[in-house]
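Schema walkthrough. Field components (list of strings):
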Amino acid sequence: MIDYWPLLGIALVVIGFALRFNPLLVVAVAAVVTGLLGRMPFLKVIATLGHGFNENRYVTIVWIILPVVGLLERYGLQERARTLIAGIRGATAGRLLIVYLGLRQIISALGLTTVAGHPQTVRPLVAPMAVAAAEKQHGELDEATAERVKAMAAATDNVGLFFGEDIFLAIASILLIQGSLASFGIQLTPFQLSVWAIPSAICAFLIHGTRLLLLDRRLGQRK
Amino acid sequence: MINLHWLYIVSGVIFAGFALGSARDETNPKRWGNAAFWLLLAVSLWFGDFFGDIGNGVLVLALAGIAGMQLIGRGSKQSTTPEEREKSSDRHGNRLFIPALIIPFTAFVGTLLFNYTAAKGTGLIDPKSVTLVLFGAGVLIALAVEYWWLRPPVLSAIDEGSRLMNSVGWAAVLPQMLAALGVIFATAGVGTTIGAIVGSIIPQGSIFLAVLLYAFGMVVFTMIMGNAFAAFPVMAAAIGVPILIHQDGGNPAVIGAVGMLSGFCGTLMTPMAANFNIVPAALLELKNQNGVIRAQVATAIPLLIANLLILYVAGFHL
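Field assembly_structure (string):
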């Protein structure tokens, strides 16, 4: 007999997000409800939540970069990024993001996943550069187009990270696959696994790269 | 040995700085809510290991309460005008990129140097968190260079940092909160339940349909949990190992690696993967909270189909 009750917590998250309640509140409530439905005593639920939160503090420390970035913005970093791109002949938003996609995949494949990222590189450098290049192609951008270009900059960082990191041998997800399969008596080396991340990485570059070229084409047309 | 705890202490100082900077911003009508929120995080970074699990749980509920009661706002304080920024940008030129590049450079070169020289044997840095520790060191070096070179007002790093931090707001903590939710889901047996449901609808006799269900299950479960790590052990136990590997004789390396990557396609499409999808929307000040996800769907779906084909062809026919 399958116990379906804990799944109600998932439903709560979906409904709470859809109704646009504050996501932090939705997640906290869903956590407590799921725990209670999973027949955990109330204090145990609170303790598990607190333990999980405390163990994952490293997720939040990336924000310590913001004073560095904010201070540079005060002295014109974003303006500088725009000027730099405006001075490069043939620079387009799509081409710029294709270069970034490739770099992000290669650096992630070397295991250096936290070297770049949304606070580290996208907000201070990649997004303003992409917007500047788009303005060069298109003239002044309406709000929807500017949003689209910025969103593509963030998307490119994600695709590059996800479909680069698994080529590195010692990345968490490869070790997790190895460990999970080993518990069923299937012994694999990290190398055997990470080799099979390469075809998907190439597909990711081709698919997302094509979309970036299409973005260029659309930016060129709407002039 | 320098490990994550050192980094937590430094980070706590910077978060306390965000609290101070928020409190100083009179243009934000909810500045005390912001200050309390960031101060709680600073306290968590400093003292989280001394509170005990229940104490941390109460702290989590307090954070959720502040955010849920809409006590966090944004100011409109401008430190320099766009004209001043243009002028400063012209004056300082491309050297402005240097402090921004110090951080990735320190993390990148530092990690390589540490791992491939005698430094690894000295035990100076905890090998498990080398890149993160060097990232923290890079932040401190970059700040020092900025103060030495640009001579900004003393508290400006705090003010500028909290300006950006408050533009992200509560979303900054969502990834950590979702990680805690994942722990609850695991303890309450959500994974087992989903595995049992998927396991009960396995199609017999068609390798392709089994591959489809495996990849699709990875995507859906990843979208629910917000990351593929939670989904993989469940889907491997339900379909990957018993059906694809043992019954149908698939290549385990392909089933494992490409199964995980199919899950990553799901990560591109879910708000539950907050640090990749919701946080950047806030950080780039997009109007649409789901703008990044919308930009990713048209990559994720063809890429999922590509992964399906790789699974099917390389897993069973090579």
